[in-house]
Design a protein that fits this description.
The protein is mainly beta and about 750 residues long. Helices cover about 10% and strands about 30% of the residues. The strands form twelve sheets. The protein has a five-stranded antiparallel β-sheet, with no helix packed on it. A five-stranded mixed β-sheet has the order 8-39-40-41-42, with no helix packed on it. It is globular and about 80 Å long.
């Protein structure tokens, strides 16, 4: 087993001295806790040394743990001391051969049949990607005595069903009325106790005693402690959880699921479920609630075959969609300096393709998670978050690719859209919102203003499989309110761009607000649908814009068909024959201020609209708010706020409405007034003729989709900054919406 090195003993002694000097006031003389946490037990278990060092040096935001700006070597000495307390003495040295251990792990020893390591391996045992953070003593104990200490979510269980069948596997979660488990074949079972005759914990790990021993154990431990990079092989999605591209293209054929952020790739945000109708919706009642344990929740969840996937600002969770019980949780430790003036600290959802869930993060990474366990398959940086960018939206999954945009609108940065290989995480292409040098559109920016021109791409795009075209909407030019430093139309900001998803090359574009000076991002949904216009069936793109105009385009060519205002506005007399706004002189911000409608949050914003193929109406959340806009000129500094002054509404009134638009005429058919307009609380039309609307003040509202008449409402108790969805399990239809800190679901009594 070897001997402990003198160098390690000195490190532990140094760590004890440093701990006594800096840490005992909160954590006690023996680290057993006082005002602070006990550091000898669960806090260390499974933690990486690097994470613990970061906690010591940088502190833990949101807690009472302050930063101790000491040399990293001192922090590592403290960690070594804490490890020695947990293990009853200094750790043992690593004596095995890591290369031989890797061969054993993935080969003869069979470890990878149950354990995943850096995205490769099985699911029945804990992910060992972070095993380097465990001591040699602890690893030896866990391998030699697997039954003694089983990790949460991996207790061995035998379940006898009411029909006499027995399922064996590991328990993921359990309460009085339900059980979530994974069987020996890695299939997830979401069980109700009323359908179960017996649940028995075996008390024995599924890992056999003596799986490896002696030199073989030393080698496996050496491999785990070395934490090498692993080359991933071919990706073969699980047959029982495989959301193929074909399924995404035909999502409307399985209305029990909600397979993408918009419900389908076309962005219609419509449910074909019809069990909840205008006649029975008044009987809707709360079914279950999930508490995220954080605020600023704006997630629109996905549902796949009874499993719900949702996000919080720094993590993701898989839930039993029938009961709300968690199956797994993924928590991302964000860097302490990720908080930025250039973004909002939220996350709006995930994408799924195959058996992987894809999440973009506030520190500007794209992460692929195993859909059954939440294990990280790969994690790649999209951009360096330190320049001031982040990602807040749900990625878009298409054929073998994951597409993401970026925040970049308010801090002298520039936006882009990226395509990544779904299997490996390799970046395939980038479309820059700022025209490249040599592109004639570069001339729409005066001087060097394109170098800090904004153009964020912070909402999820849509996709037309018929023409293999990706549609992505872009945001405001920068600075937001001072147009004097960037004369010109400022392409491709405040636009929708049609891209080739194989290359990222632009097919066409349409700009809604040339030379925007009011922060009217065009990131609202490009909704794709077909309808008859002047006696001819057309392939359409519908877009209700932040500037208060509704636009109808031909999505094959980008041709403008028609457009009209749908909300209060006083900056334009209308649109010309090409869809360009006819701007009223004197409506740009000035140092003294100009009163303009709509305000900077827009007549509508990122709240999901909904296209109903039955009523042939597009439903939107609208706002009728105005503000005084001011401007000032300043020098750009990438990463610092660069908005060129701002806007203010002294009235404190933000009237809103749910409106139904006939896209063939752009006329508003009906309007349902809201106490306060929202830029985030969206709508959902359903086949039952019910339109569900979420309002900022916390009400989930059911309206008659044809008339706008109120049918039902429920006060959730918190602001709603997201859009409802609908799904079904075992034939029962649910409606779900997230509030500031919870996910709430409803079903018929």
């Amino acid at each position: 087993m070897g001997v402990v090195s003198g160098q390690h003993v000195k490190q532990v002694d140094d760590g004890q001295r440093l701990f006594q000097k800096s840490c005992t006031g909160c954590h006690g003389q023996n680290a057993k806790g006082g005002r602070g946490t006990d550091l000898t037990g669960k806090l260390q278990r499974g933690s990486l040394d690097s994470e613990m060092v970061r906690n010591i040096v940088g502190g833990i935001p949101g807690t009472q743990m302050p930063a101790f700006p000491m040399p990293e070597a001192d922090a590592r000495a403290i960690v070594a001391y804490l490890r020695s307390l947990r293990e009853g003495g200094p750790d043992l040295p690593v004596t095995g051969n890591a290369a031989s251990g890797q061969q054993l792990f993935f080969g003869e020893a069979g470890c990878s049949r149950c354990h995943m390591y850096k995205g490769v391996g099985g699911r029945l045992g804990p992910d060992l990607s972070a095993a380097e953070g465990k001591s040699v003593r602890e690893l030896r104990r866990l391998i030699s005595e697997p039954h003694k200490e089983m990790a949460h979510g991996f207790d061995s269980v035998e379940v006898r069903l009411a029909d006499g069948r027995t399922i064996r596997g590991v328990r993921k979660n359990e309460d009085t009325f339900s059980l979530q488990m994974m069987d020996e074949h890695e299939k997830l079972h979401l069980l109700l106790k009323k359908d179960v005759a017996e649940v028995r914990l075996t008390g024995k790990s599924m890992m056999p005693v003596g799986a490896v021993s002696g030199e073989r154990m030393d080698n496996v431990i050496a491999f785990l402690k070395a934490a090498p990079a692993i080359r991933q092989g071919a990706w073969n999605p699980s047959p029982d959880l495989n959301v193929s591209f074909q399924r995404l293209k035909t999502a409307d054929e399985e209305p029990q699921n909600w397979l993408s952020y918009w419900g389908n790739l076309l962005g219609t945000h419509y449910s074909n479920l019809g069990s909840i109708t205008t006649a029975n919706v008044s009987s809707l009642s709360s079914s279950w609630t999930y508490q995220f344990g954080t605020t600023k929740v704006e997630t629109t969840p996905l549902v796949v075959d009874g499993i719900m996937f949702a996000t919080s600002p720094s993590g993701a969770v898989a839930l039993d969609a029938r009961t709300g019980r968690s199956i797994w949780k993924y928590s991302r430790r964000l860097p302490p300096d990720v908080h930025s003036n250039c973004t909002v600290m939220t996350n709006r959802g995930v994408a799924i393709l195959g058996d992987r869930v894809y999440m973009a993060t506030l520190d500007a990474h794209l992460v692929a998670l195993d859909a059954k366990t939440g294990n990280v398959i790969w994690d790649v940086p999209v951009e360096d978050y330190k320049i001031g960018v982040s990602i807040t939206h749900a990625p878009l999954a298409i054929d073998g690719k994951i597409v993401v945009g970026i925040t970049a609108g308010e801090c002298a940065l520039t936006g882009f859209v990226d395509g990544y290989d779904a299997a490996s995480g390799k970046k395939l292409w980038r479309f820059n919102v700022m025209p490249e040098k040599g592109d004639p559109a570069r001339a729409t920016w005066a001087g060097k203003s394109a170098e800090f021109g904004g153009g964020p791409t912070w909402m999820t795009g849509t996709y037309d499989a018929r023409t293999d075209t990706l549609f992505w909407a872009t945001g405001n030019p920068s600075p937001d309110y001072d147009g004097s430093v960037r004369a010109g139309d400022n392409l491709y900001t405040c636009s929708v761009v049609a891209l080739d998803p194989s290359t990222g090359k632009r097919k066409w574009h349409f700009q809604f607000t040339p030379h925007d000076t009011h922060d009217w991002d065009a990131t609202e949904t490009p909704v794709l649908a077909d309808a008859e216009i002047n006696g001819k069936m057309r392939h359409l793109l519908m877009h209700a814009d932040r500037n208060a105009f509704f636009y109808l385009l031909d999505r094959d060519t980008g041709e403008f068909i028609l457009g009209k205002p749908f909300a209060k506005q006083n900056w334009s007399t209308g649109l010309d024959a090409h869809g360009r706004p006819i701007v009223i002189p004197g409506t740009d911000p000035t140092p003294k201020g100009v009163y303009i409608c709509p305000d900077a949050a827009g007549a509508t914003n990122w709240a999901s609209p909904s296209w109903d193929p039955v009523t042939k109406l597009l439903y939107i959340t609208a706002r009728d708010s105005c503000a005084t806009y001011t401007s000032v000129t300043k020098e750009p500094k990438p990463g610092d706020p660069y908005v060129g002054s701002g806007q203010k509404d002294d009235s404190g009134q933000f009237p809103g409405a749910i409106r139904a638009i006939d896209p063939t005429t752009a006329d508003v058919r009906w309007s349902f007034d809201l106490h306060q307009g929202s830029w985030a609380a969206g709508v959902l039309a359903t086949a039952g003729g019910v339109l569900f609307a979420s309002s900022k003040d916390g009400n989930l509202i059911a309206l008659d989709a044809r008339s706008g008449k109120e049918l039902w409402h429920y006060q959730t108790g918190a602001d709603i900054m997201s859009s409802p969805i609908s799904y079904s399990v075992d034939g029962r239809q649910y409606v779900a919406v997230s509030t500031d800190s919870t996910l709430v679901t409803f079903a018929l009594r």
